[in-house]
């Protein structure tokens, strides 16, 4: 798995007419490894919903910054949140309602590593992975209803159903929390699956070749020491 | 786990005199969550060595791009690789030997998610995590010896010891592969561990609170179907 190039200037790509796909654009059609790219909405949603952190990139004083952060998805919109004092959230400035506000140019990337790919040749070593890259402009969410929806989505992204089983944010917490939204429009998924792809002339070499799958799971839950008596582990956790 | 702010303008931070720490800089001292930041070299190395992918951010046409990619570490230097035709690698331009070459400004971030943090309040939901953020300038590696060392490190990052048990890159493969180096200088780690931190007045609320640990492991290896006869699974894989 190597540094890929995303932005081939692409003239021959047809815009997807299937409503379940994102339209490929200059930003999302790779110059290389094009057979690994996908614009399928269902695949994109599945990759986004399975991960816990995204890597949010933006430009500060001309230099790139990449920060890991939790996110939530509501339909075709992603949300991230932070303190109202945090720099990227202040940089995002105004709202969609203020047309003069440019928002914050971001690139939001989510990646799963699914396996180690061991080829006979060093050159063909790789990782099996699934990733989504979203380019766009993030805007502050100021509508109180959308902000609540976004914060619920962030909590439900940690554990589905959890927002209904916790104390909702109060006015002070809402005021201290900034939320950014990013539309799923300029989006692509990329993945590698399966066996190593060795060159034909290397197949007889005396090196083991294959895939080591990476597996993820949940450990036994650790209740807080100060949990009020009589509170059992909720079903939505047992179901994980 | 929310969008943090990294670049507080910081006047009161003492430069670390311990040789096993990175010196905090304006770029690596957060304005918020400062108690979660660390400059410890051993911690940084451990976080880097345990992950498989980094998220590499750079600026293209004024906009941020964040791509997942494999990496390798040799001492205080990280390496990423890609096709010589890939855009970011071409953007990195010349070499350290060419003083006039500016290289490519990057931010390279590595994150582990260790647990889901379920507080009584929606507001205090979070993730337990460990991350490293590196700011710097990436340069193309042109010295043939360093390039070979870097490619070995990339393969050994997939599985320690693997580079010695695979066919080394040949001249054609070396020529097709570009390698970027990034020094570990402007570096910080950040982590959250332990129980949820609910407000005192919420402790009696009837909501479960605690941590769900995330665990990672390896599945049974999948040998390539065309493996030459008599090749056993190597010990370095059984040891994973």
TrEMBL record, chains A, B:
InterPro entries cross-referenced by the UniProt entry: Pyridox_Oxase-rel (IPR024747), Split_barrel_FMN-bd (IPR012349)
Transmembrane segments: none
Region (Disordered): 1-34
Any Pfam family the entry gives: Pyridox_ox_2
PANTHER family xref list: 5-NITROIMIDAZOLE ANTIBIOTICS RESISTANCE PROTEIN, NIMA-FAMILY-RELATED PROTEIN-RELATED (PTHR34071), FLAVIN-NUCLEOTIDE-BINDING PROTEIN (PTHR34071:SF2)
Protein name: Pyridoxamine 5'-phosphate oxidase family protein
Record organism: Streptomyces durmitorensis
Lineage: Bacteria, Bacillati, Actinomycetota, Actinomycetes, Kitasatosporales
């Amino acid at each position: 798995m190597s540094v890929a190039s995303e932005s081939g200037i692409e003239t021959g790509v047809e815009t997807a007419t299937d409503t379940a796909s994102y339209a490929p654009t200059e930003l999302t059609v790779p110059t290389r490894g094009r057979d690994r790219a996908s614009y399928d909405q269902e695949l994109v949603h599945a990759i986004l919903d399975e991960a816990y952190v995204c890597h949010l990139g933006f430009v500060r004083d001309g230099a790139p910054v990449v920060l890991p952060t939790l996110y939530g998805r509501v339909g075709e919109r992603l949300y991230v949140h932070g303190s109202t004092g945090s720099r990227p959230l202040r940089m995002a400035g105004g709202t969609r309602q203020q047309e003069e506000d440019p928002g914050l140019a971001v690139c939001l990337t989510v990646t799963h590593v699914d396996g180690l790919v061991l080829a006979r040749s060093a050159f063909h070593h790789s990782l099996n992975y699934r990733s989504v890259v979203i380019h766009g402009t993030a805007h502050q969410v100021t509508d109180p209803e959308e902000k609540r929806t976004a914060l619920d989505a962030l909590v439900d992204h940690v554990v589905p159903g959890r927002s209904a089983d916790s104390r909702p944010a109060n006015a002070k917490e809402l005021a201290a929390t900034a939320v950014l939204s990013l539309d799923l429009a300029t989006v692509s998924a990329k993945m590698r699956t399966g066996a190593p792809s060795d060159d034909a002339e290397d197949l007889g070499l005396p090196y083991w070749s294959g895939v080591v799958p990476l597996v993820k799971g949940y450990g036994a839950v650790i209740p807080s020491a100060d949990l009020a008596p009589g509170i059992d582990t909720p079903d939505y956790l047992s179901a994980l």
